[in-house]
Amino acid sequence: MYVLLGILVVAGLIVMSMYNKLVSLKNRVLEAWSGIDVQLKRRYDLIPNLVNTVKGYAAHESGTLEKVIQARNQAMSAGSSGNIGAQVQAENALSGTLKSLFALSENYPDLKANTSFIQLQNTLGEIEENLSNARRYYNALVRDNNTAVEAFPSNLIANNFNFGKFDFFEIENDTERQNVEVKF
Questions:
Q1: Cα pseudo-dihedral 68, 72, 75, 81, rounded to 10
Q2: Contact between residue 169 and residue 88 where contact means Cβ atoms under 8 Å apart
Q3: Which of 44, 36, 43 is nearest to 137 (CA)?
Q4: Domain spans of the chain, in order of start
Q5: What φ, ψ does residue 166 adopt, rounded to 5°?
Q6: CA torsion, ordered 64, 65, 66, 71, to nearest 10 deg
Q7: 42-168 — its CATH code?
Q8: pLDDT tens digits along 129-174
Q9: What secondary structure letter does DSSP report for 107?
Q10: Is the whole model's pTM more than 0.90, yes or no?
Q11: Residue 51: CB partners within 8 Å, gap ≥ 6?
């Protein structure tokens, strides 16, 4: 009788431990996502200033500027939807349009020398670096969570209590994964 009770108590403690681990991992992933969200908000706030600075020098490049603003707005709305996968896709599109904006600046030497533009570009570089670090941290926690959700025996607890996997924040454009070719 006591042996059976002891086995049940030990099994209950093991289940409780696995459950608490899954809760902790889920909360850490969500916390890491909020760190990404903070950096994205900083980037969203910076983009209109950057576009307005470029607009003064390259007014006839309105198509590129409109694409940047449109990509920013889509990324912001994707972020408010709560769908991480949709936001990742929108953020990748925004990154691509920002690259085209900086490529555009290469055609305007006065713009490249403008202190406001340089300061905004440096600030965006800092934000992108912080965002990159936040993405790495988030992806590491997603890996840990997904492993716990899939591995035996914690997968039994995860399935019974509806713990799920999270999506990685990764590059979706295959051309960005390729090595950069440098020609002289």
A1: -140
A2: yes
A3: 36
A4: 42-168
A5: -110, 155
A6: 90
A7: 1.20.1440.20
A8: 999 999 999 999 999 999 999 999 999 999 999 999 999 988 665 5
A9: T
A10: no
A11: 65, 68, 69, 101
